[in-house]
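Consider the following input, taken from an annotated entry for Helix-turn-helix domain-containing protein (Pseudooceanicola spongiae).
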Amino acid sequence: MSDETEEKTTLYTVPPVTRAIKVLRHVGAGHGCINISQTSKTLEINRTTLIRLLKTLAEERMIEWVDDTRGYALGVGLLGLAAEALSNRDILRAARPRLAALAKRTHLSAHLGVLDGREVVYLLREVPEARLVSNVREGTRLPAHATTMGRMLLAHLSEAELFALYAGKAMPEYSAVTATSPEDLHRQLLEDRARGIVWSDENFEPMIGSCACPVRDHAGKVIASINLSGPNAEFSRGSEQAEQNAAAIRACAVEISEALGWRAP
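Applying the prediction step yields:
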């Protein structure tokens, strides 16, 4: 690197951003930053600055507090920012071609999302060649309690985890079906989990319906959800078309899960 190039690189470097990235890399390497003073010395970052960085990164869901023993770990929020870069991850690599086939077969938009706190983050989007398609983009965040993928993911949390997540938090109402209290949401999720599929009849967006199913990893843990969305008539419960869509998305969720090593009991 020439002296001129090095000077320009230094000139355009933003120190606060560099420090934040240094913290992320440190946490990603398995260091939980439990001992702030020690971490401050290791990273050569002022103790007060480090505390502020950790708080900001946690609020932005780039990192998350695990417990007093392990400290911080990288947060799911990174997935939303890095959706494209994550295309080589197992789940996205397994899901993308299968979602594309699902969208083509059903003529509906297909998505994959993961849970990040009280939001569902869209990581994959496949659309058919049709006039009315989803306008949701990869990286989009939507309220989990009011959306099909979000509800399916919430349905696989424990009761304690669910109530801790929503205790004292606002739960905006998007339709008459939206649960606006942790108690109502819990009752709704019990039914969702029992069915193994979540339906939306204009529950979140006018004229748009959807359905969602869970995706499991090799250990059987629900790690993501996929959905189909499109004209509301396609999801009229009990209709032949809705049943066909349900069968298609269930089969796709199983295929993705099996590609990740899951086997039905």
